[in-house]
C-alpha cells in the first residue's frame, strides 16, 4: 500500500474542519468518524486554510510526543507561512518558553518553570481553595441556582493562580480575559496583546517588589531570564493553569451531578469519589482536547502516512485516549476509574510540570462545592449545554444548576 500524503494545503475537500460549530457541539462523534475513515492520522484544518494532521491513535501519539528528534516543538518555520491575522496563530506562534523549544533552550526554560512551580507549598492548597471557594458559594447558595462557569470555576481558579503567581486581582482579570480570547480563537490577536500588557505589568511589579511566588522565582532563577522570557513562561502557566483547570472543574462537575454512580454508588455499592471522576474526565473528555503541537523536521512516514515537513501535527488527547486499540473489547466510552494512563498531561519532554498542584486545586474546588450543595442538578438538558468555540479545548460556556436553597457557609 502506498503511503498517503498529508500535504495539500489548497485542497480542503478531504480535510476535517475543527473550527466548525458542528465539531464543537459533538467532537466525540467526529473522532469516531475520523477513525473509521482515516485511522490514526487525520488531515484537518485548524482554521480556514490552515492544514494540520490530527493524531487520534494512542500509540502513535505516544511515539510522536517522545520523539523530539523528528518532531520539533518549534513553530517558527511554519508560522512564516501563516498570516498574522490567522485566528489560531496567537495560540500557536513561537515564544521563548519551554513549550515552543527543543534541546538546550527547552531545558533552560523548563528548569526555571519547574523551580517556580516547585516552590508552591502543596500543603496550603486546601486552605487557599477553601478561603476563595466559601465566599463564592455564599454569593449564590441562598438563590437556589447558579452558573458554575461564571460564578464559581472562573473566579475561583483565577484567584488561586493569582495568589500562586503573586498577581494583583486587576491584572489577573485582564490576563484571564486575554487568555480566553486566545483559546477561543475569537479576537485572538487582541487577546494576546491584552495578555502581554498585563503580564509585563506584573513582571515589572515583581522586579521591584519580589515575594514568595512563581513570578518572583522566575525573575530570580539562575537561568537569568529577561522580561520577555518570564512573560512566556507565565503565559504557559496561566494558559495551562487557568483554561485547563477551570474546564476540568466544570467537566468533572457535569459528570458527577448527572451520573448516578457518583450520587448513589455503583453496582458494588461504592460511592465513587472526586478523584474517580477526575480520572474518568481526563480520559474521556480532557479539558485540553487537541494540543501538544509538533512540527516534523523533515517529511516523515508514520502509520503509512507521509507527514510534510513543518506542518502542524496536533495530538488529540481526547481522540487518542479513546482509541479502541488500547481498550481491548471494552467500549472506549466506559469508565476509566483508577486508570491514569491517559495523555491529558501530555507525555515525553513536554509533560506538564504542574500536574500535581493542578490536580489538588481542582479536587479541592469540587469537594468544597459538593460538600456545601450536594443536591445540585443541571438546570437544562445536557445536550443543550453551550460549548465554547475553538479547536483546542473542551470548555463549556455555561453550566447552569439548581439546588435547594442553603444558608451561607462559615470558614473553618
Offer a few descriptive terms.
single chain; globular; alpha/beta; 12 strands; Cytochrome p450; 3-stranded mixed sheet; 412 residues
Task: Give me the secondary-structure topology.
Blueprint: E1 4-5, E2 16-17, H1 21-25, H2 27-38, E3 41-47, E4 50-55, H3 58-65, E5 71-72, H4 76-79, H5 89-92, H6 103-118, H7 125-138, E6 145-147, H8 149-165, H9 169-184, H10 188-208, H11 214-220, H12 227-258, H13 260-264, H14 274-284, E7 290-296, E8 300-302, E9 305-307, E10 313-316, H15 317-321, H16 355-372, E11 377-378, E12 400-402
How would you portray this structure in words?
The chain has 412 residues and is an alpha/beta fold. The chain has a single domain (4-402), classed as Cytochrome P450 (Cytochrome p450, Orthogonal Bundle), CATH 1.10.630. It is built from 16 helices and 12 strands. The protein has helices at residues 21-25, 27-38, 58-65, 76-79, 89-92, 103-118, 125-138, 149-165, 169-184, 188-208, 214-220, 227-258, 260-264, 274-284, 317-321, 355-372, and strands at residues 4-5, 16-17, 41-47, 50-55, 71-72, 145-147, 290-296, 300-302, 305-307, 313-316, 377-378, 400-402. Strands 2-3-4-10-7-5 form a 6-stranded mixed β-sheet. A 3-stranded mixed β-sheet has the order 1-9-8, with no helix packed on it. The chain has a 3-stranded antiparallel β-sheet with strand order 6-12-11. A hairpin with a 2-residue loop joins strand 3 (41-47) and strand 4. The chain is globular. 49% of the residues are buried. The model is unreliable at 8-12 (pLDDT under 50).
Amino acid at each position: 500500500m502506498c503511503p498517503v500524503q498529508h500535504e495539500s494545503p489548497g485542497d480542503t475537500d478531504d480535510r476535517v474542519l475543527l473550527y466548525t460549530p458542528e465539531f464543537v457541539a459533538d467532537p466525540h462523534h467526529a473522532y469516531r468518524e475520523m477513525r473509521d475513515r482515516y485511522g490514526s492520522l487525520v488531515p484537518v484544518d485548524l482554521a480556514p486554510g490552515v492544514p494540520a494532521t490530527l493524531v487520534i491513535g494512542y500509540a502513535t501519539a505516544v511515539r510522536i510526543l517522545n520523539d523530539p528528534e523528528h518532531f520539533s516543538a518549534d513553530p517558527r518555520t511554519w508560522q512564516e507561512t501563516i498570516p498574522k491575522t490567522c485566528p489560531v496563530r496567537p495560540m500557536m506562534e513561537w515564544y521563548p518558553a519551554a513549550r515552543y523549544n527543543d534541546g538546550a533552550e527547552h531545558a533552560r526554560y523548563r528548569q526555571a518553570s519547574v523551580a517556580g512551580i516547585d516552590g508552591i507549598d502543596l500543603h496550603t492548597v486546601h486552605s487557599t481553595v477553601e478561603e476563595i471557594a466559601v465566599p463564592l458559594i455564599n454569593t449564590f447558595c441562598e438563590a437556589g441556582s447558579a452558573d458554575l462557569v461564571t460564578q464559581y470555576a472562573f473566579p475561583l481558579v483565577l484567584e488561586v493562580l493569582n495568589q500562586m503567581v503573586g498577581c494583583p486581582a486587576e491584572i489577573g482579570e485582564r490576563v484571564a480575559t486575554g487568555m480566553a480570547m486566545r483559546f477561543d480563537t475569537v479576537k485572538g490577536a487582541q487577546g494576546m496583546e491584552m495578555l502581554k500588557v498585563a503580564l509585563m505589568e506584573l513582571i515589572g511589579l515583581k522586579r521591584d517588589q519580589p515575594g514568595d511566588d512563581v513570578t518572583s522565582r522566575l525573575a530570580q532563577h539562575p537561568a537569568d531570564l529577561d522580561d520577555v522570557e518570564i512573560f512566556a513562561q507565565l503565559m504557559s502557566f496561566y494558559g495551562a493553569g487557568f483554561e485547563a483547570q477551570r474546564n476540568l472543574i466544570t467537566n468533572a462537575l457535569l459528570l458527577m451531578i448527572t451520573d448516578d454512580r457518583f450520587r448513589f454508588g455503583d453496582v458494588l455499592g461504592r460511592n465513587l469519589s472526586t478523584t474517580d471522576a477526575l480520572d474518568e474526565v481526563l480520559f474521556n473528555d480532557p479539558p485540553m482536547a487537541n494540543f501538544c503541537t509538533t512540527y516534523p523536521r523533515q517529511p516523515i512516514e508514520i502509520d503509512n502516512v507521509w507527514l510534510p515537513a513543518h506542518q502542524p501535527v496536533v495530538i488529540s488527547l481526547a481522540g487518542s485516549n479513546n482509541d479502541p486499540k488500547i481498550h481491548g473489547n471494552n467500549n472506549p466510552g466506559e469508565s476509566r476509574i483508577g486508570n491514569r494512563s491517559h495523555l491529558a498531561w501530555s507525555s515525553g519532554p513536554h509533560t506538564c510540570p504542574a500536574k500535581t498542584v493542578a490536580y489538588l486545586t481542582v479536587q479541592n474546588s469540587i469537594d468544597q462545592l459538593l460538600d456545601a450543595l450536594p443536591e445540585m442538578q443541571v438546570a437544562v438538558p445536557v445536550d443543550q449545554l453551550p460549548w465554547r468555540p475553538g479547536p483546542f479545548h473542551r470548555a463549556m460556556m455555561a453550566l447552569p444548576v439548581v439546588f435547594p436553597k442553603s444558608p451561607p457557609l462559615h470558614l473553618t
